[in-house]
Specification:
The protein is of the alpha/beta class. Among the domains are: about 1-40; about 165-210; about 335-520, Rossmann fold (3-Layer(aba) Sandwich); about 525-558, no CATH class. Helices cover about 55% and strands about 10% of the residues. The chain is built from 22 helices and twelve strands. Helix 18 (about 425-435) links the parallel strand 6 (about 405-410) and strand 7 (about 445-450). The termini are far apart.
């Protein structure tokens, strides 16, 4: 082959390599730009979930840490307010750590301004620097979500995750080398011993790896979390922020774990990866490194928690900023020393077309009104915003000012069939837990239809007594009720507000607007007519109402 032909072929190969490299680089750049454009386009929009979120997985961080919470939002309040749905309305987190952290955060209100101020300052930084916010979104998105990743289980310690008798694995790993050396003394015996040791180690490897598969998944996700934390810590726009220096400090604790995680936890996807794994199997390399990785995490438990918290805080900050942008308007809460809820144009975050209301609640208040008039939605809106104010520092209102308080509710009470308890017993327990909690912390209590599970006379008597007692405690109590009698019995102790309806030629009309004073109207019979019940039912009901109002006794209604 002449030199000119060789030169031409070499040039052709070089050109092909350059063209292929250029195509690959161009494709990567386009892919990166497309990802950034997609993430930026999704920011500020309500989250959409193609699949039903796995709430068991999302709540794992909270389950492992709830015992440490001082005054958490309890399960009854969480369920009464549909807080799972509120969480999902906010949750545009890109990582499992972020959404697990956000879920736990909504359960743990702050009772001083320090943590909330830090959270707000972080959001202000990201809000003023969209490029930084988008870079964080990219890092977090590449880390991704893995349901049941198991990282939160490391909060309980790592002792139970270690393989027992680790020295045995080291002995088994050395045996193939000893057998290889024996081949120089007796080739046949050495080869037989080497084959036997390879087979036994492969069996041990396969059995052990199956046993620790869940923990390997956790280590894989931790490896991704470390990558994300490193990228964030090196971002120049975050260099002066305490979270960045915190990441750098805690990442140092896991410098030795990098190589061990990459070998133990890395998914084997390429032929080279698979070949390397086959070479390491007989020497139990990954199994030995697994215990070392678990030990490093256990020895640096505080740094592990800190990395989890910082990445979770950053992911949550981006999600809350997106939540704010998706709202028609929002307010940063103000916190007062006096027992007050002062809010302007507050609305329920889950309603697509909410009617805002303005209220100043300075003491116990009764919110009366007819069926479907909006009183329950209003008190839920106020309760939810009380939680949002002290967790994500964001309220769905134009103004929100209140005292730091624990939100407690008694609303969606149900029979507890498994415990053999009636509706009324369950309701009493729900109220009792509120009364027992108030001495520990200032509470804002929201009650919907107090003691509805018993007869009218005793319900009103017991309800009035409970509400009078609550008024003597250090709490603020807001009650939605149908019972107009309560507004008369508690006059002077409780302020009164109400919702109402209007009858027009087109039917019944609700304006869902809060008004000062007690309701003096009822609409159950009107609703029968509005829903086109048989006229005989409507007329009979109306006559019974009139008869009762004239006599004020149930005996005449037979």
């Amino acid at each position: 082959m002449s030199q000119s032909v060789f030169f031409n072929q070499t040039v052709l190969v070089v050109v092909i390599v350059i063209v292929v490299a250029a195509i690959v680089v161009y494709a990567l750049i386009r892919k990166k730009k497309a990802l950034r454009a997609r993430l930026d386009g999704q920011f500020g929009k309500a989250p959409l979930f193609t699949d039903k979120p796995d709430m068991t997985s999302i709540s794992s961080c909270w389950r492992h840490n709830k015992e440490e919470a001082i005054h958490p939002i309890d399960d009854i309040t969480w369920d009464d307010l549909d807080m799972d749905k509120v969480f999902l309305r906010i949750d545009s987190c890109h990582t499992s750590v972020g959404e697990e952290y956000l879920y736990a955060l909504l359960h743990t209100p702050e009772f001083c301004s320090d943590a909330l101020t830090e959270r707000e300052n972080l959001m202000l930084l990201l809000g003023k620097n969209p490029q930084l916010r988008l870079d964080l979104q990219v890092y977090l998105h590449k880390t991704g979500k893995t349901d049941h990743n198991g990282l939160s289980s490391f909060f309980d310690g790592t002792a139970s995750k270690r393989l027992k008798f680790p020295f045995l694995y080291k002995i088994l790993a050395v045996i193939p080398l000893v057998c290889a050396g024996a081949m120089f003394l007796d080739l046949k015996i050495g080869l037989f011993a080497l084959a036997l040791s390879f087979i036994s180690n492969i069996v041990v490897y396969c059995l052990t790896k199956t046993y620790i598969e869940k923990e390997l998944a956790s280590l894989r996700y931790f490896s991704a979390l470390l990558w994300c934390a490193k990228k964030i810590s090196r971002h120049s726009a975050l260099a002066s922020h305490p979270l960045s220096s915190g990441l750098k400090t805690h990442l140092r604790a896991f410098r030795k774990i990098g190589g061990k995680l990459s070998s133990v936890a890395k998914q084997k996807t390429t032929d080279i990866d698979m070949f390397a794994e086959y070479i390491k199997i007989p020497f139990l390399y990954d199994i030995i490194n697994y215990n070392k990785a678990i030990d490093i995490i256990g020895q640096n438990a505080e740094s592990f928690r800190a990395l989890y918290r910082i990445v979770g805080e950053l992911d949550t900050a981006v999600a809350v900023l997106s939540f704010r942008k998706s709202l028609p308007y929002y307010a940063r809460p103000e916190f007062a020393e006096d027992s007050v809820i002062d809010t302007e144009d507050i609305y329920h975050p889950l309603l697509s077309d909410p009617v805002p209301n303005t209220a100043r609640i300075c003491r116990g208040s009764l919110v009366s009104g007819s069926n479907a008039s909006g009183k329950s939605t209003f008190i839920k809106a106020v309760a939810i915003n009380g939680i949002l104010a002290q967790t994500v520092h964001t309220c769905t209102a134009r103004r929100y000012r209140a005292r730091f308080a624990l939100v407690l509710t008694s609303m969606a009470v149900r029979d507890d069939i498994t415990a053999g308890e009636s509706y009324f017993i369950t309701e009493l327990k729900s109220l009792r837990r509120i009364i027992q909690k108030i001495p520990d912390v200032f509470c804002v209590c929201f009650i919907d239809e107090i003691l509805r599970g018993t007869n009218t006379i005793e319900r009103i008597a017991a309800s009035a007594s409970v509400l009078r007692y609550l008024q003597t405690l250090d709490c603020l109590c807001v009650v939605a009720t149908h019972d107009i009698e309560l507004t008369r019995m508690l006059e002077g102790l409780y302020d009164n507000y109400h919702f109402g309806e209007q009858m027009t030629s087109d039917g019944m009309y609700f304006d869902y607007t809060l008004k000062i004073g007690a309701s003096r109207t009822k609409n159950a019979v009107k609703l029968l007519e509005y829903m086109e019940f048989d006229r005989r039912i409507i007329d009979s009901a109306q006559k019974l109402v009139e008869k009762f109002e004239a006599t004020q006794t149930w005996d005449t209604l037979r």
